[in-house]
Write a structure and sequence with these properties.
Order of helices and strands: EEHEEEEEEEE
Helix content: under 10%
Radius of gyration: 20 Å
Bound molecules: zinc ion
Largest sheet: 5 strands, antiparallel
Number of strands: 10
Strand order of the largest sheet: 8-7-6-9-10
Number of domains: 1
Length: 158
Amino acid sequence: MAKTGGEMTELIKIDSGEAEIPYNWHCGPYWSRFFRGLRDEKKIYATKCPSCGTVYVPPREVCGPCFAKMEEWVKVGPEGVIEMFTIVKLPYINPSNGKPVNVPYTDVYVRLDGADTCLMHWLDETDEKKIAIGMRVKAVFRKKRTGTMHDIQHFILM
Ligand SMILES: [Zn+2]
C-alpha cells in the first residue's frame, strides 16, 4: 500500500500471462569471435585500434574516435579492476521474461587487464562495505559454456 494524496492506495499488478516470443539473432563476426573465445577457450578477446592503440572489450569493429577498422585481436583479463558498481536492492520484474528478479545483486564495470574500456557484468558480492572502486576482480567461467556473455558466471573479488 502506498500513500498518495493523503489516502492509502493499492498498487495493482497485472500479469502478462504465459506469452512467449521465441527469437534469435546473428551476433555478427566480431561478437561471434568474442563469444567463441569465451565458450571454447575461456579467454576474453578484445580488438585493438591500429591508429590510437585503444583496446576495446567488448570488441568493436570500428574505433569511435579514429573511425579506423580494427582487425587485431588481443587477449585481456581475466582479471581487472572495478571502475563502477551498483548494488540493486529494489525488486522489479525482468521485462524479458516477466519474472521477478532476485535481489540484491551487484552490477559491475570491470576494466580488464590490457583493456581500455569496461566490461559490464555481475559481481558475486552484495555487501557495499566489502566493495570499492579500484579493487581487483577476476572472471569466473561456467563449466558448461554455450557462447554467450553468461559463459562468464560473474566476477569475484580477489
Ligand atoms: Zn582509435
